[in-house]
Amino acid sequence: MGQQSTGQLDTVMHESRVFPPTPETSARARIKSMAEYQQLWDEAAADSPAFWARLAKEELHWFQPFTEALRWNEPFAEWFVGGKTNASYNCLDRHVAAGNGDRIALIWEGEPGDKRQYTYAELLREVSKFANVLKSLGTKQGDVVSIYMPLTPELVIAMLACARIGAIHSVIFAGFSAEAIADRNNDAQAKIQITADAAWRRGKVLALKQTVDEALKKSPSVEKCVVLDRVNEAIHIEPGRDFWWHKLMAEASDNCPAEPLDSETTLFILYTSGSTGKPKGIRHTTAGYNLFAKKTFEWVFDHREQDVYWCTADCGWVTGHTYVTYGPLSAGATVLIYEGAPNFPHEGRFWELIERYKVSLFYTAPTAIRAFMKWGDHHVEKYDLSSLRVLGTVGEGINPEAWMWYHRKIGGERCPIVDTWWQTETGGIMMSPLPGATPTKPGSCTMPLPGILPKIVDSSGAEVDATHGGWLTIAHPWPGMLRGIWGDDERFKEVYWSKVPGKYLAGDNARRDADGYYWIMGRIDDVLNVSGHRLSTIEIESALVSHPNVAEAAAVGRPDPLKGEAVAVFVTLRGAEPSEELRKELVKHVRTQIGALAQPDDVRFTGTLPKTRSGKIMRRLLRDIAAGKETVGDTSTLEDYSVLASLRSEEE
Ligand code: AMP
Fold first, then answer.
1. Ligand 1 center to 507 CA (angstroms)
2. How confident is the model at residue 531 (pLDDT cuts 50, 70, 90)?
3. Whose CA is nearest to atom 6 of ligand 1?
């Protein structure tokens, strides 16, 4: 039982496949070898403020140069002190000024198939106009603008318009309830709301404005609301409060110079709900975040001018902030965005888009990859995916078998896969392979990016050895790090900085193998404790997913008088029906894959697993179900409440 108190974990996974980059990929990459990566990493490790200062001077536009790279008053960081820049300028004006105004910035396809695209010069004009609209509604620097919109170009335009004038955006995913919007608006004291009449989702119309009307009844700080006409729905317009986007834009000037802003000006707040308690408003600031977004985008995707880049995330999540908006646009990339669902009107929609737009860099989530596998390969095989060059994943660990499917079926065994580990709090990618340099191992996010110093520790703060997992911490400040929780410094200190002195506590478990590769083992709170052995969720789940009939799996602990906890697994199937025989076979499969210790005591078949709206499996809820308890805690981020009900009814 000794390990229980130290935070160390046992590892049971054996994954030995290694995929080096092809010589062609390496030859044309920005970072061509592990030696080059190591050199950059060493430069950063030797003096990380100096390393980032060098990059900041090269990569961002400075209205006024900074005088100090980092002022660190743990846990409060200030990067590029004394400097003035503007994220909207870095994303737009900089490219136009460099003669690249005609380059395509955004390509958009709506769910019904409507299409639009914007060059950098056009996007700059639209953003400038909307910045003037915001000003005309009384928006001042430091005001919070709440955005609740479908994934349209106007969502990106609204974000960049805020950045242009120093207003703070708080994007709320357009699937959240009125209650969730009101909570976030009140916490942030939002002054302006931006929304749309409605949104398309799987052919249905979602009445966004109606939800916002409800929310605004409980959001007294909101004075004005701008409504995009997306679907042509009849909606309520509150005189004096609500305004149509197109009417205001028709009168707005397209001249709005970007405001020179102090480096540490808040760029955005993004609410993320921890496993319990009220959502935290994660605060990111201008210069450090912008630099980190740009450089990590360029390193990880090895972006080139001719690339067409598609990140499937919505701007309601941090991935849509950093890798739809600020990273790729700062890098001058051509970015595809798609409004709708991956299976509407058919299960091959994503592959159809890749073929149509010749997408070369593709970034999506493991939950989507598992769904594609379940839907079947024939949806993929109809389309030409030869334009693809680099594939990415984000949001959860990817089970090695899902990784192999992505590699074979989508990547044609030629595209490197970048499994990117990061969080809303980290602002950008912290660990990932580099396409031209890093040999990949399925299921590992491989190595830290330059300037990032992870340490795996036990609960006393001591580093654990390679045979064990422990808490993942980051030892040095980095420019993209969160600057705090909106309005709650105490909670910021408590959650991230109190348990391991001097280091940022990520809340994930991880292990580092003998080759120095990092493996994320799941959230600290999700660890299973079986007979004194602490096991990670992902290892058991990956063993299950390696069975040909398992589409998805979630492993949780359930109280057991003998073992402390028993292993309960929830499984969704592909190509098979639930049966007692299959149940036994899966138990045996896990035992042979990773050993008797991790063998499931309960196997439950289910049609779907409960997930957050961003696609992460909610193990906490399953734990309660496995233990036969009523569900407690915050379920406002749950994708589909009916999943819970059906899981309950599937209980014996
Ligand atoms: P969020 O801030 O909502 O994006 O969630 C961040 C969390 O997602 C991390 O703390 C991890 O638990 C998980 N996560 C994100 N990317 C990965 C990855 N590549 N591998 C494993 N877990 C991941």
1. 10
2. confident
3. 423
